[in-house]
Amino acid sequence: MKPHENALKLLNSWDANAQQWFEAVRDSAIESRRLVTNQAILDAITAQSPKRLLDVGCGEGWLMRALCEHMGEKAPEMLGVDGSQWLIDRLNALGGRGVCVTYESLIETPHPSLQQGDFDLVVANFSLLADHCVELLQALRPCLTPEGKLLVQTVHPHSVSPSAREGWREEHFESFSGNWQAMPWYFRDREGWLEVMTASGFTVESVKEPRHPHTDQPISLLMTAAC
Ligand SMILES: C[S@@+](CC[C@H](N)C(=O)[O-])C[C@H]1O[C@@H](n2cnc3c(N)ncnc32)[C@H](O)[C@@H]1O
User: d(Cα 203, Cα 189) in Å, to the nearest integer?
Assistant: First the structure.
C-alpha cells in the first residue's frame, strides 16, 4: 500500500522523534500518561487475562514491561510491532520482543510473525494515528482467536475540541521539551472511532473515558471490541 503523503510524514516523524519519545516515556514526562492513561490501559488489559498479546505501534515497549510488573507470573506472552527501527531496537535491548514493520506493509502482506489465530488480545495504545485504521484493523483481525479482543486507547476528541471535525491535523509537541519534528495525525470523533471498529469487523463491547483526577476532563477513549 502506498502511504498517503501525511501517513508517510507521520511515519518519518517517528524516526526523527524516536529518541526524544524514548526519553519522554522513560522520564514519565507526559502528565496525562502518568496520571491517567497508563493505568487505564494496564487495568483494561489485566481485565482480559490474555495469554498472548500483540502490541501494535508498541514504540519502545513500555507497555509490555509495565505489564510484566503489573501482572507478574500472569503476564501474557507478548510481541510488539512498530515502524520505527530505533524504537524496536530499544525494546529488544530492554528485553522485550519486537519486530520492525510498518502498518502499510501489514495491510499489504501478512507478516510471518503474526500467524492466524495467534493472539487473544491486540492492543493499540495511542498508536492508530493515520487514516488507514480500517484497513489496518481488518489486516490484524485474522491474528486473533475467534474469542479474541481488541483494545484501542486514543486521544479523547474533547481534548482537541468538542466540535472538531474528522481530518488531518498537525501535532507540534509544544508541551514537550526539545526539538520535535511536527507529526501529521488523523483526528476522529467518538462516532468516527465507533465506525472504524464496526467497519473493521469488530463489535464494540465497551467505551470508557478515563478522566484527569484533578480537572475531571476526559483524557482518552478506551474501546474494547470483540472479533
Ligand atoms: C504515540 S506512540 C505510542 C507508542 C506506544 N504504543 C505507547 O503507548 O507508548 C505511536 C507509535 O506508533 C508508531 N507508528 C505510527 N505510525 C506507524 C506506521 N505507519 N507503521 C508502524 N508504526 C507506526 C510509532 O512509531 C510510535 O511508536
Answer: 18
Could you list the beta-strand ranges (E) of 49-182: 52-56, 77-82, 98-100, 119-125, 144-155, 167-171
**What is the domain partition of the chain in residue ranges?**
5-226
Is the minimum distance from the CB of 87 to ligand 1 under 6 angstroms?
yes
Q: Is any atom of ligand 1 closer than 6 Å to the C-beta of 25?
A: yes
Q: Is the full-model pTM beyond 0.85?
A: yes
For 37-94, write each residue's pLDDT tens digit.
999 999 999 999 999 999 999 999 999 999 999 999 999 999 999 999 999 999 999 9
Hey, whose CA ends up nearest to atom 4 of ligand 1? 59
Average pLDDT over residues 1-24: 89
Q: What is the CATH number of domain 5-226?
A: 3.40.50.150
